[in-house]
Amino acid sequence: ILSTNLDGLIIAGEPDDDLLDVWTGPTVVAGWRGTIPAGADLVANDDEMGGQLAADHLLGLGHRDIGH
């Protein structure tokens, strides 16, 4: 049960349908989830860009045999 004294909600896991049925306030979803409530903001990393930055860094240091 949610407190009525909340100003906002951060979802850091898969949201429960019961929660989404009762919560109407500002919401931020942390990380990619299967369900993102309508109107919620999403904060997530970009794995593709992160991998590219890491590979570029290692290549810039002269490494050529890079494993994943």
Main beta-sheet annotation: 3 strands, parallel
Proportion of residues in β-strands: 5-15%
What's the total helix number?
A: 2
The count of DSSP E runs of length 2 or more, i.e. the number of strands, is 3
User: Structural class of the helices, strands and pairings?
Assistant: alpha/beta
Head-to-tail CA distance between termini: 43 Å
> Spans with pLDDT under 50 lasting ≥5 residues?
none
Q: State the share of residues found in helices, binned by percent.
A: 25-40%
Biggest sheet strand line-up: 1-2-3
Topology, please?
Elements: E1 9-11, H1 17-22, E2 27-30, E3 41-43, H2 47-60
Description:
- The longest helix has 14 residues, at 47-60.
- The chain is built from two helices and three strands; from the N terminus they run E-H-E-E-H.
- The chain has helices at 17-22, 47-60, and strands at residues 9-11, 27-30, 41-43.
- The mean pLDDT is 89.
- The N and C termini lie far apart (43 Å).
Summary, kept brief:
The protein is α/β, with parallel strands linked by helices and 68 residues long. The chain has helices spanning 17-22, 47-60, and strands at 9-11, 27-30, 41-43.
Looking at this protein, list some descriptive labels.
rod-shaped, 3-stranded parallel β-sheet, 68 residues
